[in-house]
Design goal:
about 675 residues, mainly beta, Beta-galactosidase, Chain A, domain 5, TIM Barrel, 11-stranded antiparallel β-sheet, 7-stranded parallel β-sheet, 11 helices, about 15% helix, about 35% strand, globular
Length: about 675
């Protein structure tokens, strides 16, 4: 993938050699001047702070490290050099919410050295964008620092006053990110996951996360007071946070700054803080809409294991291929085809064999049948968290898929721990997931990872890392003891989990109840299920329900039509946890798509269509809740109609039922 336009690179370089000078601070600002970053030493302790238009956002916050094999590195510093640079370019994203991304930032590099003792150097790099701040630590190669055994990272996030936060907790035994989001004051939280989204007392919105998580431990936030968190890294089973060797750099600590929730969604800071793609040729990367036997397993129509209900049979696969071909869907996901599912795999996945099929499934026959129908098979690797077993078979498994034309794999890690003892977001887990992504790229295979380490914008560097789970998805609506995801769940995800990257939520359920688990259900209307294809970004989206639930349903047409990658994205209106209305423009046509969803409360909106192209008339295909629709009482009521002669001066009135939504396709009249 080539950068399409270089506006300017490294416009200004200011370097101050400060030997013998008592310089105690450095500062820079965003390109538009609205955000200002101040770095300063307070009695030798490094601190950073951030303002927006002179309003303090991040109060002075300390920085530094503790180690198991050397003294702490967090005080007794002096500044030995400061460099300031500016950078501006536009690059193209192969699969994304935007086709073109502007990377426009000012950078401040602060080089520190201890005044006494080991006189170690530590560099801190700050990048200030119009939409936020990223900063990272760099340990240069130097005498006395070879191996680093990090026990703590002491990065503070201090606020001038207490805020509210949307958060999920860190459980002491597992971190699969599959909790319902809570909304509370900081003082009511404990150690929380990132990304965490803050609603400030001054009306701003902040998201704290990390970018380019590479060979390091995942970032959590440990509450130190009602106005302050400190970095808390996911540990190895031996208690160490990070093993490293100098030279070495950490992931970026990120703070997105927004006036409203919509600006969080359209921020590109996370992507811009990741490296450009590692390969020149990504032409084999492509978007997808697919079907599969997945939902049938969750509602217990099929089983992963062998037996009378085994889902991954050659015959069943061909039935799904026929359905996909008939309706213009390009993929079929087959889970449970390989040996290992007959064991207690969710406790110990070492029985999985990733190249040996069950007797009732012929991989070569199925992939050949799919190819003749212009459909591709999506492979599946469930590891049960046994990553050493998976790693030992990975090359052979990807070779098998590549040989049979399988260019996408869904990989799962269902277990509280990896290899029985390591956390998913520990350095151990981060290393494994990166190895899987790199190995898949070598075989020109795209990945969809479930039970992942949380997103950090890595899909810029590896576009084959197309999507991931990493939150409570649709499956909870089939069997969860709490009844399923509440109606407000998907009104929170765009402003929390989805800020970390694309999500495989698996929307499109048209049958809301599960006969084998009547206490759980999909808590939406059909129209809301359609709107989720616009609201929840994923370059690979599943039409998740059973084929028989789509047959004869006029509303299925929207799922067939809606794209999965976009030219541009706009959030028209949103209130986190209540509602969101979003529009996206198709990358390969002049069509626009609108999705609007609500919580358990009904809503009515007057939508300005000023996002439509000027001097162009449109016809809108509208999939709306019926007048009697209700997520619990009548989720199946859908009104489908057309409005003609619309323009960017028009107003569209929409009504959302409790737990409902609206999905709209705008088609240019001359198309």
């Amino acid at each position: 993938m080539k950068k399409i336009l270089i506006l300017s690179g490294c416009v200004v370089i200011l370097s101050f050699m400060l030997a013998g000078c008592a310089i105690q601070n450095g500062q820079t600002s965003s390109p538009n001047g609205a955000l200002s970053l101040l770095f300063e030493l307070e009695e030798g302790v490094p601190h950073y702070s951030l303002k927006k238009n002179e309003q303090l956002i991040i109060a002075p916050s300390a920085m530094g490290f503790s180690f198991k094999n050397m003294p702490d590195l967090k005080s007794d510093f002096q500044i030995i050099e400061i460099q300031e640079t500016a950078h501006s370019e536009v690059w193209e994203q192969p699969l994304g919410q935007f086709k073109y991304i502007e990377d426009n930032h000012n950078e401040l590099l602060v080089k520190l050295a201890e005044k006494s003792g080991l006189q170690r150097e530590l560099h801190i790099i700050f990048r200030v964008f119009n939409d936020g701040l990223g900063f990272r630590y760099f340990f240069p190669e130097q005498a006395g620092i070879d191996s680093l055994i990090i026990s703590e990272e002491h990065t503070q996030f201090s606020f001038p006053q207490e805020h509210h936060v949307w958060w999920i907790p860190i459980n002491s035994e597992t971190v699969l990110y599959e909790s319902l989001y809570q909304y509370s004051r900081i003082s009511e939280t404990d150690t929380i996951n990132t990304p965490a989204t803050f609603e400030t007392a001054d009306g701003l919105y902040l998201s704290i996360n990390e970018a380019n998580l590479t060979d390091y431990a995942g970032l959590h936030l440990l509450k130190e007071s009602e106005t302050q968190y400190r970095s808390e890294l996911a540990a190895w089973s031996d208690g160490v946070k990070v093993y490293a060797k100098a030279p070495f750099e950490t992931p970026w600590r990120t703070i997105i700054v927004a006036h409203n929730p919509g600006e969080l969604v359209t921020s590109t800071l996370m992507l811009n803080l990741n490296d450009p793609p590692v390969l020149d040729d990504w032409s084999w990367i492509e978007p997808s809409k697919y079907v599969g036997i997945w939902w049938g397993m969750h509602i217990e129509k099929y089983s992963w294991a062998q037996g009378p209900k085994h889902g991954a049979t050659t015959q069943n696969a061909k039935k799904y291929i026929d359905f996909a071909a008939k309706h213009g869907l390009d993929g079929v996901l087959i889970e449970g085809w390989n040996y290992g599912w007959d064991s207690d795999w969710y406790i110990d996945g070492n029985a999985f064999n990733f190249t040996t099929p069950y007797p009732d499934f012929d991989l070569e026959e199925v992939t050949l049948y799919a190819a003749t129908h212009n459909v591709r098979i999506i492979g599946h690797h469930e590891t049960g968290g046994a990553v050493s077993n998976y790693t030992s078979q990975m090359e052979e498994a990807f070779n098998l898929y590549q040989k049979n034309g399988v260019n996408t794999v869904k990989a799962g890690y269902v277990n509280d721990f990896l290899d029985g003892k390591e956390r998913h977001d520990s350095q151990f887990g981060v290393r494994h997931y990166r190895h899987a992504i790199e190995t898949a790229a070598k075989h020109k295979i795209m990945l969809n990872i479930h039970e992942p380490v949380k997103g950090s914008g890595l899909h810029r560097t590896f576009p084959n890392y197309v999507t991931a789970e990493g939150a409570r998805g649709q499956e909870y609506n089939a069997w969860s003891n709490d009844g399923g995801n509440p109606p407000n769940h998907t009104t929170i995800l765009p402003f929390t989990r989805l800020l970390a990257g694309p999500m495989d939520f698996t929307p499109g359920i048209f049958k809301m109840t599960n006969p084998v688990n009547p206490n759980a259900r999909v808590q939406t209307t059909i129209a809301k299920q359609l709107a989720l294809y616009v609201i929840i970004f994923s370059p690979h989206h599943m039409a998740a329900d059973l084929p028989e639930h789509y047959e004869g349903q006029q509303a299925f047409q929207f799922i067939k039509d809606v794209p999965t990658i976009w030219e541009t994205t706009k959030v028209l209106d949103a209130h986190i946890g209540e509602y969101v209305t979003m529009v996206r423009k198709d990358r390969n046509s002049d069509d626009w798509y609108l999705g609007s969803i609500t919580s358990e409360l009904p809503r009515s909106f007057e939508i300005s269509l000023d996002f439509l192209d000027k001097d162009q008339s449109y016809t809108a295909e509208i999939y709306a809740d019926g007048s009697d629709a209700h997520w619990d009482q009548n989720p199946y009521s859908v009104n489908i109609n057309r409005e003609e002669g619309l323009s960017n001066n028009s107003i569209l009135s929409i009504n959302l039922a409790p737990g409902g939504g609206v999905a709209v396709r705008f088609i240019p009249d001359n198309q």
